[in-house]
Amino acid sequence: MAGGAGTRLWPVSRDTLPKQFIALLDGGESTFQATVRRVSGEGFDRPVVITNQDFRFICAEQLAQVGVDADIVLEPERKDSAPAVAVGAVIASARREDALCLALAADHLIGDAEAFRADCQTIGELAAKGHIMTLGIRPTEPSTEYGYIRPGAERLGENAFRLDRFVEKPDRATAEGYVAEGYVWNSGNFAFAARVMLDELTRFAPAVVEAARASVAGAVRDLDFIRLDPASFAASPKISIDYAVMEKTSRAGVLAAAFEWSDIGSWGSLHAVKPRDEAGNVVEGDAAVLDTRNSLVRSEGLLTAVVGLEDVVVVTTQDAVLVADRTKAGAVKDLVARMKAEKRPQASEHLRIFRPWGWYQRIDIGPRFQVKHITVRPGATLSLQRHHHRAEHWVVVHGTAEVTIDGTVKLYHENEAAYLPIGCTHRMHNPGKIDLKIIEVQVGSYTGEDDIVRIEDVYARQ
Amino acid sequence: MAGGAGTRLWPVSRDTLPKQFIALLDGGESTFQATVRRVSGEGFDRPVVITNQDFRFICAEQLAQVGVDADIVLEPERKDSAPAVAVGAVIASARREDALCLALAADHLIGDAEAFRADCQTIGELAAKGHIMTLGIRPTEPSTEYGYIRPGAERLGENAFRLDRFVEKPDRATAEGYVAEGYVWNSGNFAFAARVMLDELTRFAPAVVEAARASVAGAVRDLDFIRLDPASFAASPKISIDYAVMEKTSRAGVLAAAFEWSDIGSWGSLHAVKPRDEAGNVVEGDAAVLDTRNSLVRSEGLLTAVVGLEDVVVVTTQDAVLVADRTKAGAVKDLVARMKAEKRPQASEHLRIFRPWGWYQRIDIGPRFQVKHITVRPGATLSLQRHHHRAEHWVVVHGTAEVTIDGTVKLYHENEAAYLPIGCTHRMHNPGKIDLKIIEVQVGSYTGEDDIVRIEDVYARQ
Question: Is the Cβ pair A368, B414 closer than 8 Å?
Fold first, then answer.
């Protein structure tokens, strides 16, 4: 499940590229990549990635980077976890009737992949017996950030119990009581037999399973993607799998797992799971700290200096800066909501915009002009397009461009420039084996993204 | 005196453009501009600006912006305040033998220009009687950031006294005692008769006055600037006017002035003098604050968000970010010293580099390429130059360029591009009445600033 849009890790995580796709982990991997890698190989079938259609290209690119093949199923809209689980179960049971499923969130950190896989084996075996197993995590502290699960008395296996009840995020005192009584954190990851889950969904949330079956039946293959039928999917209630099934079913079990786990729900929790220096700081990127303790400082390029502070989070990107009390970093969500209401582009969009063919980034803008850096992947092609209000100058600074202008095709090499007059039909293609990098200078009365007439597009965009 | 290089207001103030030239004041004026404007008009002669030669163009441009004519005297190196005061006195006494001087720092904030001018009248009259008057400020709090002056018992005029003694920056308890006993802050601004100052310098610091006379005698007029003779100036001791004269002379007096004053010695002191909102915050530029109090947030373009903090300073520029405890913001000086030792360019240089002809700013850089935005003032001309390792593409995005390439002159208008092959001799001139803006794409094996052969330069640079 990789469809979420985490705003609590703003400004790094934004709607157009949310946290599960960000290289937050040491080694530069995203949690999405780490998640699919953890369940690749022996014992696991080809993963089914369920994500929002907006993330299809980044999803495909990140899978290719880690060499994992997957079915990428696109949700036409956000519907919470029950519809995603239902769609997964429908697809799995079509592969084989007795399919066992792991429903995993793509934005979690897991410290020990081997321990995780061993636990998957355990809950898989219990799932085969008809249990719907939730992955519980033994608390390392009385956190108020997570929901808890009370394991029942009936033992299903080693560290596995029938599930007694779910409880919401508690206050500190309640959380201490829970920890003392052996409650575990609810990680939101599950194992079940596809058939059992579909049975329980049919019983407790029939509209969800109906919509899932119809949207899979009506799905369209589009390039490498499986597009769920929008009308059928729209009919599904928006509900979490906990509310739809887990709190109602008598088949629920829980494994009390002991590996390091975090849902990285805030910058504070990222600080908690990262290696810290002797002052308790996590410092990433170009940063300088002086007389500073227990803080997270992360820069994506700007020199970021912190002086004389404790328990702060400082995160800087090319177009936005967040400074927050580490223990109140959850409130970033409220701030982002406010900034969205104020229609600030930095609240939702990254400066670097990923496209199926690569990415672009604005590097300068002024009255009647805009400058972009455009990187085109080897073999990729931008749409055949036209602008009404701007001319463009393309200077190739790396690689080779095949440029079509009003039907005439010409190759441009490093240090060569093409001029595209207003209104001309043009297309850029990278015929080479290395990235093509272009500096695009736009000049005209209007340089907005929406002045684009797409005449033809290999990625079927309008 | 406008030659200082304030690092405690980093990242806005840097060696290449220090705080006195930054638009820190409401209304977008620099303290340098406010200082010269305050002493312009009736009762004041043409100001003598003494500054470092590195600041000559920004100095001239800022004077032109506020419409003040001044003699701009260039120090070949930094020598503290006594040599500057001596040079000023030498120049003033050459204008007229009985000249009265005000020696003012260019980086101070003064709240009430009228009160200031009235006090200048008062200390001017006392200076004419032979006193060397220091401008003392009645403390508004027991600050530990300023040196203090004890007024003597002998009254020289209304609020004016013979000076009893100077004391260094005290600790808090001592400062409270000073305030109770009627001490005033030492503002470092003075009034004196040129002749008296030269006499006292001759008596207490003869090497300073000798060097001043020789460096003025050997000065060279260069465009609008007066360049002090480097060898003569180099011979001067590096000493403050307080140590050289004020603590020794029997002619010192002090006026206890009552207007709002600050030397803006740190971000904390800027917070103290700016209008604050009801939460005690000063918020400037594109910023969003949530649950934040008594803080200074200043952005030069990046969206800057602060959540759940108190007493912090957050200052963001295009290439650097400072986050500091407001009460420890003086330590920024130490941080900058460390970053200079680490040879981080952001410690000393701004991203936007001012030149006599306008400014340029890097907007993108990568292997074998660099992109710059270049703005050329109307009528201005860049040097005739050549590069060994890079070709350049110039796209005009605003105004008109007169471009010379290997002797051929051609006009380029908005949306036209010129190509400069490696090794060609080229020059850019703005023949128009509005700013010329060019996007320059450099491509080549080396794009450093030092790959430039200047063949001819109207600003006499090498």
Answer: yes
